[in-house]
Design a protein that fits this description.
Layout: H1 2-38, E1 45-48, H2 51-59, H3 66-76, E2 81-90, E3 93-101, E4 107-113, E5 119-122
Antiparallel strand pairs: 1-2, 2-3, 3-4, 4-5
Length: about 120
């Protein structure tokens, strides 16, 4: 008799888990789509320049220096450690793509307009 009660309890628990799991997965999917729609669109980066090409662009004063882009990024993420800075092309022209490590251990990507030095976005 005990085995039958235990078997019924296990079946009911499994059925409740499956029924609850499907509902929560659907809710999670809807929540994820809503969250993605609420985020601002990330500018599409086409390709990044080599270090030699970046030096040439900076040398001919077509873009700001990388240190100026880093300073601009630090206004958005003040105490983060900049890990990488790349000069890349996107549909609007050249941008600096900066990867920073925040103190909480998360990486943040900051996009800085290479001509004006203004932060264009982060994700």
């Amino acid at each position: 008799m005990r085995h039958a009660i235990a078997l019924v309890a296990i079946c009911l628990t499994a059925a409740a888990f499956v029924a609850g799991g499907e509902g929560s997965m659907a809710e999670d999917a809807a929540g994820t789509q809503t969250a993605q729609a609420a985020l601002s669109p990330v500018p599409r980066v086409e390709n990044c320049l080599s270090p030699a090409d970046m030096r040439e662009e900076v040398g001919e004063r077509r873009v700001i220096e990388p240190i100026a882009a880093i300073r601009a990024a630090r206004t958005v993420i003040p105490r983060a450690e900049i890990q990488r800075a790349s000069l890349c092309r996107n549909e609007d022209g050249l941008v600096y793509m900066l990867t920073a490590l925040r103190r909480d251990g998360h990486f943040v990507h900051v996009i800085v307009d290479a001509r004006t030095g203004k932060v264009a976005g982060q994700y």
